[in-house]
Amino acid sequence: MSNPYLPRGIRNSNPGNIDRVAGVRWQGQAAVQKDSRFITFIDPAWGIRAIARVLITYQDKRRAADGSRIDTIREIIERWAPPVENNTDAYAKRVASAMGIGPDDETVDVYDYATMKALVLAIIKHENGPGPRNGQWYSDQIITDGLARAGIVSGVRHGS
User: Which of 44, 66, 80, 124 has CA atoms 20 to 30 A from the CA of 140?
Assistant: First the structure.
């Protein structure tokens, strides 16, 4: 989308506003990167896939500040949106509220389709504001396609 009035994440098909990192190439990354800070994807489903892959990496390979497994919304958001740039407490509370859980509930399983979908939708909304489709930016089909590209499919649980 090239409409300059749309949020940057939506214009870049990167609704999670994932930063560019030198030497890192994402599946679905556009050949020409027009944004100096954030990755541009060829379509929103690839950007949604990237959000899901980052969240999976957090849960599988990273640790929370206290050394524990990342399994709460607060721990996820503290990595996703570091406090040097964001009000992580407010961000975590907003995402947890959208998911119907507390920010410190140790119940987040990103391999669960419903959990991952709710988490991705809440991140997209926080990063870009409410969208024109009942508060969302993308149709269920685009969300489903992006999650499937990350290996998250309704009714199927993978991972550890």
Answer: 80
What 3-state class would DSSP assign to 73?
A: helix
What does the CA dihedral 29, 123, 84, 1 come to, rounded to 10 degrees? 40
Domain of 86 in residue numbering reads as 45-149
Residue 78 dihedral angles phi and psi, to the nearest 5°: -60, -30
Q: What is the pLDDT of residues 57-98, one digit of tens each?
A: 999 999 888 889 999 999 999 999 988 889 999 999 999 999
Instruction: Please indicate, yes or no, if residue 137 is contained in any of the structural domains.
Output: yes
Q: What interhelical angle do 73-80 and 113-128 show, nearest 10?
A: 50
Our count of domains for the chain comes to 1
Tokens of 74: 């607060």
- Closest Cα to residue 122, out of 53, 73, 57? 73
Phi, psi of 155, deg, nearest 5: 85, -5
